[in-house]
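task queued by scheduler; priority normal; single chain, no ligands, no partner chains; default sampling; output format set to structure tokens
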Amino acid sequence: MAKSADVVIIGAGPGGYPAAIRAAQLGKKVVLIEKGTLGGECLNWGCIPSKALITAASFYHKLNNGAEEMGISVSGATIDITKLMAWKQAIQDKLIDGIKVLLKTNKVETIIGSASFNGKSQIEVDLDKKKKKETINFKSAIVATGAEFISLPEFELDEIDILSAKGALSLDHIPEELVCIGGGIVGLELGTVFAKLGSKVKVIELLPNLMTGVTKRLVSVVERKLKELGIEVYKEAKATKMVKKAGKLYLTVETKTETKTITGNKILLSIGKRALTSNIGLEKAGVNTGKGGFISVNTRQQTNVSNIYAVGDCTGQPFLAHRATKQGIVAAEVIAGKTSEADFKAMPGAIFTDPEIAYAGLSEAEAKKIGFDVRIGQASFAASGRAMTQLADSGFVKVISDDKTGVILGIEIVGPHASDLISEAALALEMGATVEDLGFTVHPHPTLPEMVMEAAEAIEGKAIHVPNTRKRKI
């Protein structure tokens, strides 16, 4: 006999499980289906494990490069990769257990299995462990299946020699040489991790710039650090062939000027993603998908089928866990009859390179293209006492504003703890704040957020510790 539910959710990642909890809070009978492990990519082979390794690698690197400047001498520091991975996994396990408790507390029924639509109001679940199937009739459904990394013809992901982020975050050793095919966010974040842990890292990027889509001047600060770490970067380059000999990988790389061979012990492949939507019966439900299998949705997260919603990476870029979560909450609230909508003024992005990059709102180029009369203010972390005390005074804060109204249009940060600082920017944008509002807000001293204040003040000619964009107002 078929089970019934108000809401069925496929995928228990950062989009699915918050949607389940929110729908349950609003009185809906919810069934959450996950074919793997709760938490999805973010918790299992993305956000959390990568940040654990980034933190460990940065700590280890600072012990060996910088501590002496503080008068701290450390000798014999080593990395036990087995313990490091166990520590990382312990964090993941604790968070997964927390999700289980939250779902149980909110009376969400969780099913482990593979779901597929039978139509617009029915799902069948293959219960892998129980070797049986279960049918669920639903009023509304939310697809939160995420996305997966794609391969190249000559470089098929096998998680042995050619790794996705998932494989790279589960290595039982530090490779002597790591080749990163793809100079995007994943390649640079994890490439930096392994460079700090002792690997010789080489990055191959097909396009003229690293992290395409991110303001070039922000990326240039990171590029200087890559050079300091000894990371070799090949731009406008293409890996065309790989041969494995005696345990080593030999890659043929074509650049604009030459064809050369580079070596590696492991390859990290991060060139893009496709939606995980091909095997869930969307066609039976009448849900349309586009290029890469991604699902188009409106601002209420509805697909072309009114009672079926989609959230997170399966709806396309940007691939951000916090975007998935907010979309999941919106979908749940819409299903419950609330006037909710994903009409965010700013979807902040955070990149955990060294130094970090974060941004919210419009870039200067985007604002000018729209037609704004743009005025910017900048504040360098070189003027921040707090940044100096952290041996992290590279980078800057940039505030982009409308010169006519003073309204903040966007904020970009490259520097220490940029990922933490950007939330103030996102709030300012959502509230429609002006540079005067941001500059007038008292920021404690000595802290890194002071530079956000200084960048805003520079636009009005009021900055004290950095050069002003215009003359001081009387």
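post-processing summary
- The chain has three domains: 3-149+274-335, 162-270, 349-459.
- The CA atoms of residues 137 and 174 lie 49 Å apart.
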